[in-house]
Amino acid sequence: MTKNRIVLASLEEALALGARLAAVAGPGDVIALSGPLGAGKTSIARGLLAALGLEGEAPSPSFAIVQPYDVPEVRLPVLHVDLYRIEDPDEAEELGLDDARTDSLLLVEWPERLPASAWHDALWLTLAVAADGTRALTARVPAAWEGRWPLT
């Protein structure tokens, strides 16, 4: 597993990163988006979904927990998941995320709400907000993503 660190200086850069991820992600993949409220997790997800063909702005799945997107709305099935309101890992089992991985890309915000073993093969992107408002992104790139991660 390798780690990379980059700076996202603007909303446009976060959206562009999402678009680059859309070019290399596919069904069965998990992209874990971690960081505090307002760090840019949903912006990266929105850039990815727009690049997959979603028209209009993707809502944050904070209250729905799982926001599905299916063909033809997007090029491939995507589940945009927000685990912020999950307090016990057992609650997540009811979401059926393991089964969904067989044919969908999972974008998971607040992945740390579940044990790390749930995301052993996920591309893990952690965002931190710097004093100047930029976002520092650290990517943990598992073997399954090496060669596909846009910044390697």
TrEMBL record:
Main location: cytoplasm
GO MF term set: ATP binding; metal ion binding
GTP-binding in keyword set: no
Location(s), subcellular: Cytoplasm
Similarity comment: family membership: Belongs to the TsaE family.
Record keywords, A-Z: ATP-binding, Cytoplasm, Magnesium, Metal-binding, Nucleotide-binding, tRNA processing
One of the Pfam families matching this protein, by short name: TsaE
GO cellular component: cytoplasm
Protein name, UniProt field: tRNA threonylcarbamoyladenosine biosynthesis protein TsaE
Any single biological process term in GO: tRNA threonylcarbamoyladenosine modification
KW Lyase (keyword) present: no
